[in-house]
Amino acid sequence: MAYQQPSLPYAENALEPYISANTISFHYGKHHATYVKKFNEMVAGTPLDQQSIEEVVKTVAGDASKAGIFNNGAQAWNHSFYWNCLSPDGGGKPSGSLADKIDQDFGSYDTFREELANAAATQFGSGWAWLVLDNGTLKVTKTANAQTPVTEGMTPILTIDVWEHAYYLDYQNRRPDYVASLIDNLVNWDFATSNFEAAGA
């Protein structure tokens, strides 16, 4: 029951000029594809092969003997989620129920944006910045390497990949510029809102 790498929801050049087709080609076509391939190889022929990738990630989290399965599975899941967080028609501000909840829990969109951008810019080394729903409250958090909020009982609403392969070809060491470009021009608020509403908050 091998996990299939989902197709990109847009063309490789659709996020230009903010994220280049060259970056997408390496990031999706090489890095993400390798995580999926290694994950499938590691769980093949084991009971884990019968579970969804999200269930496997939750099952093996914290088990040092299954660190390879966790790292590749969580990275495969995180990336599949990340691609949907971006849209060539994205950016701007959310509307509707998610916008109201952001105002309620952060005080304003501007405060939220500052927290998310700061989390993404200050994550030491490789990792992810997230907007999550935690016990009914929206929060910004960050995770290192392959870690993911799904193992902490939180519901991911939105993520920003801050591994160097996500931005280095386009921005070199200017991670804050990549983060600002992504938030202001590419965030798929429709996807984020659907995640929020599906959580029943």
Automatic annotation (TrEMBL):
Residue ranges occupied by any Manganese/iron superoxide dismutase N-terminal domain in the UniProt entry: 3-87
Gene3D superfamilies the UniProt entry points to: Fe,Mn superoxide dismutase (SOD) domain (1.10.287.990), Iron/manganese superoxide dismutase, C-terminal domain (3.55.40.20)
Domain Manganese/iron superoxide dismutase C-terminal: residue ranges: 94-194
GO MF entries: metal ion binding; superoxide dismutase activity
Record GO cellular component, one term: cytoplasm
Keyword list, A-Z: Iron, Metal-binding, Oxidoreductase
Keyword Metal-binding annotated: yes
List of residues binding Mn(2+): 27, 79, 161, 165
Record InterPro entries: Mn/Fe_SOD, Mn/Fe_SOD_BS, Mn/Fe_SOD_C, Mn/Fe_SOD_N, Mn/Fe_SOD_N_sf, SOD_C_sf
Catalytic activity: 2 superoxide + 2 H(+) = H2O2 + O2
Highest taxon of source: Bacteria
Pfam families the UniProt entry points to: Sod_Fe_C, Sod_Fe_N
Signal peptide (residue range): none
EC number: 1.15.1.1
Family per record: Belongs to the iron/manganese superoxide dismutase family.
Protein role: Destroys radicals which are normally produced within the cells and which are toxic to biological systems.
Protein name in the entry: Superoxide dismutase
Organism the protein comes from: Prosthecochloris aestuarii (strain DSM 271 / SK 413)
